[in-house]
Amino acid sequence: MEFVIGGAFQGKLDYVKEHYSITEADIIDGKTGVLDITQWEKGKNEIKAINNFHLFLFRWLKEEYPIERLVEQILEKWEDMIIISTEIGYGIVPMDALERKWREKTGRICCMLAKRADKVTRITCGIGTVIKEKELEVVLIRHGKTKGNEERRYVGTTDEELTKEAIWLLSNKQYPKADYVFVSPLLRCRQTASYIYKNVEAEVLEGLRECDFGIYEYKNYEEIKEEKAYQEWIKSNGTIGFPDGETREEFKTRTIQAFWCAIRKAKEKNLTKIAFVVHGGTIMAILDELSNPHEDFYHWQVKNGDGITAVLAEEKLDHIHFIDCETLENENL
């Protein structure tokens, strides 16, 4: 259920129609709608929204309907309902006893709806401000090992496959579940996603690919340790970027853009658990930017096949836990 609240004549109904593609035929109105909720959908389209919910409360109160029970029945029967109500708790306390009781009852019911709602939006001058949103569980998994990983090479743009050992390991472990998967376009990530999330829809996002290591692509430390440019990169703690490659800031910027693109898609699909099957650098970039409490880039290094679980709340990732592939239960248990 989603709850839309605001003052009188602030454009609440127009906002809902515009943002949810709802028509008058999909709405029941507290001014004129029948009080018996069992009659709401007879001869009508499926109801998607209740407008002027506060007026239903007034009319139910006046006719001595069991309001709390009715509200529970509405929430149970119409789980995806959008409820629109005007705030009436401000201003002078009414002299009329019924209106005072209505004001109190509406305030208490709206508090309950806000607590139970997946999303709460306040409307002011036709502009919606989301003041509560459903938390989203996020799983970040680094792809399994490749030959380049075993040889401790900088594997960025090189599109190599997983080792046989990695495939066996990924195929036989129980990873955290997900309703949808976002994946780097590189083969090692797509393979990893196919073994961990066999029956889950996956979407490739170009921006989730690994950092471009430039002239050091597929080299290891022993091969480049004497080069001056590489020594300068080491001294900068990896911030100055690779010759002919990406700087850390360039890499982080496009990674975070891709992450938020995925989050928008997940919210549009009303998903609650999503996974990213990506690269070690991608995970480090995301958590360097969004971890709460914050830890810097290198704190978030994970091994191949390992990962991190977190909860996205208020545009930050918190409740963060590391996933150790070796300790995961076997798939056949």
Give a quick set of tags describing it.
single chain; 333 residues; alpha/beta; Rossmann fold; 2 domains; six-stranded mixed sheet; 11 helices; 35% helix
Summarize the structure.
With 333 residues, the protein is an alpha/beta fold. Helices cover 35% and strands 19% of the residues. It folds into 2 domains: 2-133, P-loop containing nucleotide triphosphate hydrolases (Rossmann fold), CATH 3.40.50; 136-327, Rossmann fold (3-Layer(aba) Sandwich).
Question: Layout of SSEs?
Answer:
Layout: E1 2-6, H1 12-20, E2 27-29, E3 49-51, H2 53-62, H3 67-77, E4 82-86, H4 97-116, E5 119-124, E6 127-133, E7 136-142, H5 147-150, H6 164-171, E8 180-183, H7 187-196, E9 202-204, H8 221-224, H9 228-235, H10 248-268, E10 273-278, H11 280-290, E11 307-313, E12 316-323
Helix pairs in contact: 2-4, 10-11
CATH third-level topology of the largest domain = Rossmann fold
Can you identify the CATH superfamily of the largest domain? Answer: Phosphoglycerate mutase-like
N-C termini distance: 37 Å
Secondary-structure content class: alpha/beta
Task: Explain this structure.
There is one protein chain. This protein has 333 residues and is an alpha/beta fold. The chain has 2 domains: 132 residues, P-loop containing nucleotide triphosphate hydrolases (Rossmann fold), CATH 3.40.50; 192 residues, 3-Layer(aba) Sandwich (Rossmann fold). 35% of the residues lie in helices and 19% in strands. The chain is built from 11 helices and 12 strands. Strands 2-3-4-1-5-6 form a 6-stranded mixed sheet, with helices on both faces. A hairpin with a 2-residue loop joins strand 11 and strand 12. Helix 2 crosses helix 4 and helix 10 crosses helix 11. The radius of gyration is 26 Å and the shape is elongated. It starts with a strand and ends in a 10-residue tail after the last strand.
